[in-house]
Amino acid sequence: MSPGAGGYSGVVPRLATRISQHAWLQAYALSKEPNTVPSLTAPTTRVAALDYQPVQATDFEDLLSLRIAAMRESLEAIGRFDLARARSRLAATFKPEQTFWIVDCDRETAPTRIGFYAVQAEPDHLMLQHLYLHPTASGRGLGAHVMQRLIDASEQAKLPLRVCALRDSRSNGFYAAQGFVKTGEGEWDIEYERPLSNQQQA
After folding, report:
1. Alpha carbon of 137 to those of 65, 96, 144, 183: distances in Å?
2. Which backbone phi and psi does 99 adopt, to 5 degrees?
3. Rounded CA gap, 17 and 133, in Å?
């Protein structure tokens, strides 16, 4: 992850304190969409002062800015940072109905969008397409709280959770600490799966 840029101004816009009734209804409607995970589209239960809010199609540029902030350092370290590639990779998998803002409500001012995740439901697994936190939100254990939400959804759906991580990035250690096991690798990415708890005990 890259060092913070001194704050979120111009990168991550502020949010209202609570989900509006409209957003709640939208979240409920999204749970009916194909390839979504109902337990992730249900009304929010806050953990560690975090909130989760549905993404709109018009949020793409803000999502891209946050992804770049989160990934830039790791990509530059392997000579792979490219703005055009970053845009095309996010655009190729962007589905608003599967994507949620991670909102930090433990702020002296207003709640702030500090990251986002996207999960796609496949017949035999859940695919974590994206999970990013802004660098200024790192070091507080928030990633582990978000991951626990995703693990709980995996257990409820009775489907293992899979993810690809950039080779040599710190995210590999994070996923290993969350119970993911390596299942394959390519030139730039490493594939992981977190088995269901009953499979881990078998």
Report:
1. 15, 23, 12, 29
2. -120, 140
3. 19
Query: Which residues, in sequence order, are CB contacts of 63 under 8 Å at separation 6+?
Result: 55, 90, 94, 99, 116
- The pTM is what? 0.73
Summarised one tens digit per residue, pLDDT across range 166-200 is 887 788 889 999 999 999 988 888 999 999 987 76
Average pLDDT, whole number, for the chain?
Answer: 77
Show the domain range for 60: 21-201
**What's 88's domain CATH number?**
3.40.630.30
Q: Is residue 129 part of a domain?
A: yes
**DSSP 3-state of 95:** coil
Listed in sequence order, the residues at least 6 apart from 127 whose beta carbon sits closer than 8 Å to its beta carbon are: 119, 120, 121, 162, 163
pLDDT (tens digit, 9 = 90+) per residue, 19-76? 333 333 333 334 445 566 665 655 454 446 899 999 999 999 999 999 888 877 766 6
In a domain, residue 2? The reply is no
Inside any domain, residue 10: no
Instruction: List the helix and strand counts (H, then E) for the chain.
Output: 7, 7
Alpha carbons 70 and 102: distance in angstroms, whole number: 14
Would 90 be classed as within a structural domain? yes
Total of domains in the chain: 1
8-state DSSP, 180: -
Give the rounded distance of the alpha carbon of 194 from its chain centre. 16
